[in-house]
């Protein structure tokens, strides 16, 4: 068994990743799980932390929020995982909890078993977008979450929702979870045209629209029965530049707008629009939030939750993380960047 851990850290804001060999971490809390990373997925948040210092408490920083791997050690009070289990987890940037390293330590509630049919690379892409999509529904729109043990059983039941950024990792997760939470809801989504088939035939959107179409507003209104939609989930902060998107609301409907926190200023909305900002760390406020990864595990076992986006493996070995971050900075379209370990 390896005794050393290579972690990839950034010394200061705007820095490059540097490899550092340190002793393998130890379990400190009895409810912790140590994971040997087998694949790491890259998120826009990794770049925002490294480049702009978003939510960085101190430097040096080990980044990395997404990954999958094999359980290396467990604390005395860990109930559901054993050494050797293949898992997907939500990691925490900072140091010992981050995924840009060979071994990371996370609380048991942030871990789910990976089905054997899922590759480590595919599973590594699940955590952040799933968790944040759950916040979009449970906190942003306050829908029911029937598949979350202990989660809200009642809530807002929109008849139609427009998802801005259906081909983003977050949007692709939202489409699927909304379909499960409110099965009869008309689910509409925007993206570039090459992703429309994926959004409708794989993820379950009813209709997808070209996000750059000059007739987007009319098209969405007409698809929703001419009145307009009950709610919008903005997965990419599109409302800041696409100001006429609020015209897709049914003016006599609830006009709920759930906007993800992108790190930028909160998007201002026209009067009458009920706007709520959501983010991953709202988990603390979600009823049943402790069971969020348990719910993911069940959805994967039942085959009710699909791979949100195709995976693009950018390299083999943690040294490929720098290349992955550079690619993310250029922008991605309808895919997740992953490094195999
Ligand atoms: N606060 C949190 O906890 C949290 C958690 C997760 C994500 N986020 C934030 O949420 C945002 C999305 O994250 P992500 O990982 O899902 O992003 P991503 O996958 O990297 O997003 C790329 C996608 O965005 C789409 N897009 C960009 N502008 C668009 C627009 N105006 N309309 C429609 N689609 C648009 C592109 O669509 P096409 O290529 O089809 O044109 C592309 O597929 C980021 O700002 C991220 O930082 C925040």
Spans of at least 5 consecutive residues whose pLDDT stays below 50 are none
**CATH class category of the largest domain:** Alpha Beta
Q: How many individual β-strands?
A: 16
Principal-axes geometry comes out as globular
Which bin fits the share of residues in helices? 10-25%
Question: What do the pLDDT scores average to?
Answer: 97
> What is CATH's topology name of the largest domain?
Rossmann fold
Task: Provide an overview of this structure.
This protein has about 350 residues and is an alpha/beta fold. The chain folds into 2 domains: about 5-125 and about 310-340, Alpha-Beta Complex (Quinone Oxidoreductase, Chain A, domain 1); about 130-285, NAD(P)-binding Rossmann-like Domain (Rossmann fold), CATH 3.40.50. It contains 8 helices and 16 strands. The chain is globular and about 65 Å long. The model has no long low-confidence stretch (mean pLDDT about 95). NADP nicotinamide-adenine-dinucleotide phosphate binds near residues 165, 195, 236, 261 and 332.
């Amino acid at each position: 068994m390896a005794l050393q851990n290579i972690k990839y850290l950034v010394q200061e804001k705007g820095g490059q990743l540097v490899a550092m060999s340190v002793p393998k971490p130890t379990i400190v809390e009895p409810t912790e799980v140590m994971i040997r990373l087998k694949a790491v997925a890259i998120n826009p948040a990794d770049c925002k932390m490294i480049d702009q210092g978003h939510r960085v408490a101190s430097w040096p920083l080990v980044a990395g929020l997404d990954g999958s791997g094999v359980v290396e050690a467990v604390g005395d009070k860990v109930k559901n995982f054993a050494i050797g289990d293949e898992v997907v987890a939500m990691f925490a940037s900072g140091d010992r909890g981050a995924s840009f390293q060979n071994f990371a330590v996370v609380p048991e509630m942030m871990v789910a078993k990976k089905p054997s049919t899922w590759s480590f690379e595919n599973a590594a892409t699940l955590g952040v977008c799933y968790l944040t999509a759950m916040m979009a529904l449970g906190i942003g729109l306050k829908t029911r979450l029937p598949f979350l043990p202990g989660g809200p059983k009642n809530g807002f039941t929109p008849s139609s929702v427009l998802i801005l950024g259906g081909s983003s990792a977050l949007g692709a997760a939202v489409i699927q979870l909304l379909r499960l939470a409110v099965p009869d809801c008309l689910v509409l989504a925007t993206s570039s045209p090459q992703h429309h088939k994926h959004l409708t035939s794989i993820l379950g959107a009813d209709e997808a629209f070209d996000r750059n179409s000059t007739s987007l507003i009319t098209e969405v209104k007409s698809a929703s029965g001419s009145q307009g939609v009950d709610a919008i989930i903005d997965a990419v902060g599109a409302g800041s530049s696409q100001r006429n998107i609020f015209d897709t609301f049914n003016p006599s409907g609830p006009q709920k707008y759930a906007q993800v926190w992108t790190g930028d200023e909160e998007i201002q909305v026209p009067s009458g629009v009920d706007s709520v900002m959501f983010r991953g760390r709202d988990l603390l406020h979600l009823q049943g939030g402790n069971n969020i990864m348990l719910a993911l595990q069940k959805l994967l076992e039942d085959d009710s939750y699909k791979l949100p986006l195709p995976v693009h493996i950018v390299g083999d070995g943690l040294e490929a993380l720098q290349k992955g971050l550079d690619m993310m900075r250029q922008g991605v379209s309808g895919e997740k960047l992953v490094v195999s370990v």
